[in-house]
Write a structure and sequence with these properties.
537 residues; alpha+beta; 6-stranded mixed sheet; 5-stranded antiparallel sheet; 23 helices; 17 strands; 50% helix; globular
């Protein structure tokens, strides 16, 4: 029988839900924590065939059949192991590798890998409480970590010297390099992690397969992770998942946050079902792993622009995984804070409020659409409808997809197309150049000379006293400052267009030549400018 590397078969089991695989042939109904149906391997009228999505196994209490997605595919479709693996790989969207049976050398190599990473974690943990790790220990305690939390998560310190390269001097260099802990340089082996606060990364079985190191001197990047190895792939690993599995089962949901410190603080403050990606954007593999454990997921991201983009991306990724038993929501931590800061300064109750206020996916996708497209114009609505359709088409459950289509058709009718007796005209406040605006302009010009150069012609019209020293009430960053200038420029242009329209109207009333065509042109230009303004604010 053809054998495949355990890494690949494990990847299939992590990527595919056993419920999805079996429900293609057997109608299943959820009762309690498991799914039940009539056994496909013997005739029965009363369902005795149990499927556990969390554990990845099925068991028939009638005939005793028991197994996982591979054995089910082999027995239900009467195919050999190789054919079953090929079919499951296709279903998972994975390329079928041409693996050979594992050799004793490969097995030894994997065992050596885990032995080295486990020993390295112990060394780092000891160094954290040694004199050379005092600054790292002070930092992590300052972030609200107790010694109990530090020990539970194996947090340690990688000193500035080559401690790992020196400790494993008698280990074969290739085996040591394979773990990603050391590299070979011009003058010999050197440690990859130096002067870093160290977080061990565990696989789903609780084995240490990699590390994440945080800088302590303010240098960027803030975090560096072990590069991908044979035993570790960032895109397929969720930080804290080994600790969260049981909590996800009990809480009947998973929470995804942005960083490992956030994940640890959440787990230690009553949200044990929390995990985080490892310094990389959320991937389909991450979602597949979580959906195997539970299809109820809350994404909890920072409320800034980056967090909103990450949430929008997560929304697009999870759509193919939705089922009728999925409850996917989006929560945001606002005010420049993150879950770690909320928990340390405000406590669990405030974090609970944020989680409980999470927006359902159906509403969040609708918000994204209305935010990114100008739905008060025909062309904008067409673009918005195309976007919505492209997202809904990702849903693979046919009936659920139909429900989403019906829901959005209703919303489009009531919110986009419904006739209103009194059409609403967007009202834009065009402020005078008063003292506040002058103060803001002087502040921007003095702080960002590049903006002054770029918009000099426009800014010069206001006769500003640029030598005066002022402090704006708004602490503009570069991007916000430029948006402020552009919005002011658009407002003043609209103001001038409206004055032109008033002058033309008066000329038309006094009997001058027909001015209707010119007024229509100005109206079109005003509408275009208002659309641009709406996109800015």
């Amino acid at each position: 029988m053809t054998k495949y590397d355990n890494n690949f078969t494990d990847q299939l089991r992590e990527r595919l839900s056993i419920v999805d695989v079996i429900s293609r042939r057997v109608p299943l109904v959820k009762k309690g924590q498991n799914y039940w149906g009539c056994c496909p391997f013997h005739n029965e009228k009363t369902p005795s065939f149990s499927v556990s999505e969390d554990k990845g196994f099925y068991h028939c209490f009638g005939c005793g059949k028991h197994g996982d997605i591979i054995s089910f595919t082999m027995e239900s479709e009467h195919v050999d192991f190789k054919t079953a693996i090929a079919e499951l790989a296709d279903m998972a969207g994975l390329k079928l590798p041409e693996y050979k049976p594992k050799s004793p050398e490969q097995i030894e190599s994997e065992e050596t890998y885990i032995t080295i990473t486990t020993a390295a974690a112990k060394i780092y943990a000891e160094k954290l409480f040694a004199p050379e790790g005092a600054h790292a220990l002070s930092y992590i305690r300052g972030r609200g970590f107790s010694d109990e939390m530090i020990k539970k998560y194996g947090i340690g310190y990688a000193p500035k010297n080559n401690i790992i390269a020196n400790k494993f001097v008698n280990t074969k260099q290739d085996k040591l390099i394979a773990t990603g802990l050391v590299r070979r340089g011009e003058y010999g082996m050197y440690d990859f992690f130096r002067d870093k606060l160290m977080f061990p990364i565990f696989n789903a079985r609780g084995q240490i397969v990699a590390f994440s190191g945080r800088s302590l001197d303010g240098s960027e990047p803030k975090y560096i992770n072990t590069t991908d190895t044979e035993m570790f792939h960032k895109r397929q690993t969720l930080f804290g998942f080994n600790f969260a599995r049981e909590s996800i089962h009990r809480a009947n949901r998973a929470i995804i946050v942005e960083g490992q410190i956030d994940a640890i603080q959440m787990q230690c403050n009553g949200f044990g079902e929390t995990v985080a990606p490892l310094g990389t954007a959320l991937t389909e593999d991450h979602i597949a792993i979580l959906c195997k454990a539970n299809r109820n997921i809350i994404f909890c991201f920072d409320g800034d622009g980056a967090g909103q983009k990450a949430a929008a991306r997560a929304c697009g990724i999870i759509l193919p995984f939705l089922r009728d038993n999925s409850d996917v929501r989006f929560a945001f931590v606002t005010g420049g804070k993150d879950p770690d800061e909320i928990l340390r300064k405000s406590g669990r109750a405030d974090m609970e409020k944020i989680i409980n206020s999470a927006v359902p996916l159906v509403d969040f996708l609708w918000q994204i659409t209305n935010k990114n497209y100008v739905i008060n114009t025909p062309s904008g609505r067409v673009q918005a409808e195309k976007f919505l359709k492209s997202q809904i088409d990702k849903i693979t459950d046919r009936l659920l997809k139909s429900e989403y289509e019906n829901e959005y058709n209703s919303r489009k009718f009531n919110e986009w197309h419904k006739w209103k007796k009194s059409p609403e005209t967007p009202h834009i406040e065009v402020p005078e150049i008063d003292n506040i605006i002058k103060k803001n302009l002087i502040y921007i010009v003095n702080k960002y000379p590049e903006i002054a150069e770029r918009y000099g012609d426009f800014i010069s019209k206001f006769n500003l006293d640029l030598d005066s020293s002022v402090q704006s009430d708004c602490d503009f960053d570069l991007k916000t400052a430029e948006k402020y200038i552009i919005s002011l420029k658009i407002q003043k242009y609209i103001e001038s267009l409206e004055q032109q329209k008033r002058d033309l109207t008066l000329r038309g009333l006094s009997g001058e030549n027909d001015v209707s065509q010119e007024i229509r042109r100005i109206d079109n230009e005003i509408n275009k400018m208002r659309e641009k303004f709406d996109l800015l604010v």
